[in-house]
Amino acid sequence: MRVLDRVVFGDVDPAWSNREFMRQRDNPSQVNEIDTAVKLAYGRIKIDTPIYLGDMSFGALSGIPNIALARAADRTGVLTGTGEGGLNVEVSKSKRITIQWASGRFGVDIDVLKLGLGIVIKIGQGAKPGIGGHLPALKVTEPISLARRIPEGRDAISPAPHHDIYSIEDLGQRIWALKEATGKPVFVKVGATNYLPYIASGIARMGADGIIMDGHGAGTGAAPAVVKDNIGLPIDLAVSWVDRILREQGLRDGFSVIAAGMVSSAEDSAKLMALGADVVSIGTATLIGMGCLMVHKCHLGFCPAVLTNKIIANPAKVLSMEKSVEWTSNLIWGWQEELKWILRALGLRRAVDLIGRRDLIKGINLNPETAEVLGINTENTIFPLIGSSPELIEYAEGDRDYWDDASKEHLQQLSGTTGRSPGEAMITSMGSIAPPLVDKPRGILDWLICDGAQVTRPSIDPYREEIETACYLADGRIRLSSPFFFGRVPGASKKLSEILTRVAFSMGLIFDTDDNAMPSALGRALILEGAELSSESKSLPCAVTVRLQEGLDFAQDLRRFREIHLPIFLRVPSSEEAISWLDNIPQTGISGILVDWDIPSESRIDIGISIAEIDKILRHRMWDGEPQRSQLDLLASGSRIRGAGDIFKLIALGADAVGISESALISIGYTAEKMDRFDFDVGLERLENLVLGLQKEVKLLAGAAGVSSVHKSLTGNRELIRSIDLDPIVRRRLDVKAGGGL
After folding, report:
1. In the beta sheet, which residues pair with residue 638?
2. Is the pLDDT higher at 589 or at 7?
3. Please, which residues bridge with residue 33 across strands?
4. b or e along 563-591 (b: 16 or more beta carbons within 10 Å of the residue's beta carbon)?
5. pTM of the entire predicted model
6. Would 364 be classed as within a structural domain?
7. What do you get for the CA distance between the two ends of the chain, in Å?
8. Is the pLDDT confidence value at 296 over 60?
9. Is the pLDDT of residue 518 over 50?
10. Which of these three, 337, 352, 367, is where a domain ends?
């Protein structure tokens, strides 16, 4: 559930409000007198209702919706954006539009820039902060090719950063250049990410007329699912701090704050205005108003509602222009009417009187940290999601519904078991439905969100620039091509073990296995506890693991494996008990610790907590004048690690590499019942595709975060993650900051 859904207006009696509505609905003169108009850009743009109709490009939408939005904006006196896809000729005839100046510069020149009421410099967007726009090749038809001035039939992927904006000073130069060239006000659009208040301050100081902040979960025509689901803050956690910082620094008066991302009603807009926004931006809501069915397949170009179809010369079906303008206009007028009733219930006569009135709202069942981020009071706080240690254990044990259908489908599309693009990052459309905002969180990692680089540091374009994913373990004796490996699969058949081992060998990974024969022949196995090996063995694994248990003397095993010069990892459960065992770690002879979720323990805790706490302990303990962490690798492994998002977050919490097991089996469609019938060659191909797909998704997350080397720059870098409304007890154990806080 969104934080915004647990924010209410505090001084409104619902019963009184209903009676008042019933009494006045036949004589609404008092409501009609309420003024919903606001001014933007230091008073240069007036809009009749505090609504901005998003930035949806020509090509992402099928043409008629673009025109309908522009005409409805003219009719209702609001404002709409053109997106980054060039300018439709009919849209250019409307007056109440803004022209987007994005990193791809598609179809934009000085004549186009002069057509609107203002210009939007797009740095980022909520669906994919740190990642450029993406229009798939099949939607780049002749009309789009002409509008965007790009080749027909090829992906239109705009760069992640503007290659002439690498600092706030660079941004200032572009703002003033566009102002002088066009005489228009300039807004800057960014995704809601860490330190957004300081970014907003910089944007205001550089001469911009306003900021458009696009929150996590916002819609888009096409985005990598791993980015859309794992990066960016929800807009409700961003607005209040931006408003407060700008006021503290004397920059708020006249500077416009536009809030976007999962805004679905007039009530949402009223709450966001009370938190500090001047205007809200609605994109998905307008499409739903025109008939969108939320199929989440806009990028394929075959929309059942004819809103996001690929544009061809003679379409079989087209949207009614007249009806689309009517529906959108009605949506805006209805929104305006509802906003007036909210203002009336609050005793306000003007919409501008609601802006920044945090005293009018309160939180219900919000933890105090989240309430502090919002700058509001809270009541009835019972921490309904995750609380004390016993609840964590109970939650962690509940695996029955851990693997939801969306996670399974994602993995199977990466591998090619389903879908059309094996080995590629999965693309989806129309907003995120991932936890914790929509779907139910299933583990601690679901309450964590990753950062996107914008303005204060440049993102790195994973489509055009090299991002290093190689990981080195055991003082460089083991090299992984990617920061993940195949984790232990208890009871794996010989066929499955051979598939995992062969792919590990061919793809530069390792397989953590208890099979002491076949896998070691390829030298890429991490052999489980006490394998019978000697220096005379014809083939050796790359490392061994020894189980660390309380009261167990494993010195003999350590001596035995040291004699054959193999790296040794201590395997521990993800438990409170294992953390306490760290005092028993030998001073020499081991290369690292492997935290294995699948080892049962009475004190089991979420693997994210284990990794974060072990990493913190090792960083503060010293061996021979150096932190233990610099001398020991830390690995995480287990059946609850679902994909690139979990891998990225565990590395940020402190892991060097992460082992996947159940996710690998799900991706290739392998089950114990299918063991005899499972095709060996098909399994190999699918698993190789999975590795390629996960590697690309890790690169997308790293590039969006501005990380060029995963192992060097991400490991233990908790500044790149934030928690979303997570219980403060758990957040402190993870040692991450609360989302939206400074």
Report:
1. 660
2. 7
3. none
4. eeebbbbbbbbbbbebbebbeebeeeebb
5. 0.92
6. no
7. 23
8. yes
9. no
10. 352
